[in-house]
Amino acid sequence: MLLDERAEYITRSFYLRLELRYRGTLDHDQRLSLRHGVSKFDQDARKPPRSGHYGMGDPIKFRMNGEVVDLIPVRAAHTGGDTIIRFENTDVIMIGDFYRNYGYPFIDTNNGGSLKGALEALDYLVKIAGPNTKLIPGHGTIIKREDIVPYRGMILDVQSKVQDLIKQGKTQPEVLAAKPTAAYDAKIPGALGTAPGAGTSADRFVRMLYSELKK
Q1: Looking at the predicted structure, is the pLDDT value of residue 2 above 50?
Q2: Which fold has domain 5-213?
């Protein structure tokens, strides 16, 4: 399932909070737009991706208190059902958990996430964000578009190192021991911090890469 029950619950709760928060200011058409959005968002997120493509779903757009809000479903990035929320007038984008600047990327493959989808989501952000757009990640500090490029480059560099070690016949423990993230560990806050059930954040990231590349 592309949108798991947890993501569906979060999505529906988001719409409910919006309606309750602005109940006194939303007109009839705006309330209908929000309710329709739940159904349309669910349908879009459940659409199977085109062959070999993860990509974005169709966005939901609505207006509220002078703001234009876009809900953009992201398939198979951090999990199997994430959402980018863009506020067009204030030039702010909530990007969720497929980007973080505290610790290494966490791609939850047990809940539908994928490396390919996360990279595509980062590329999409670069396209829709302007030079002054504020990007709000799920973990870490507010960033700008220029911060996405080196982050993506780091992922590709470590991925390449892990891939080379796999080609040499290295096992997962041997790949971890080779420390393919070493060039970045001192630069990334929390890189060597503890990750629940996975050693350090760096270890968790390398394990994910190994698992994805061995498929």
Answers
A1: no
A2: Metallo-beta-lactamase; Chain A (3.60.15)
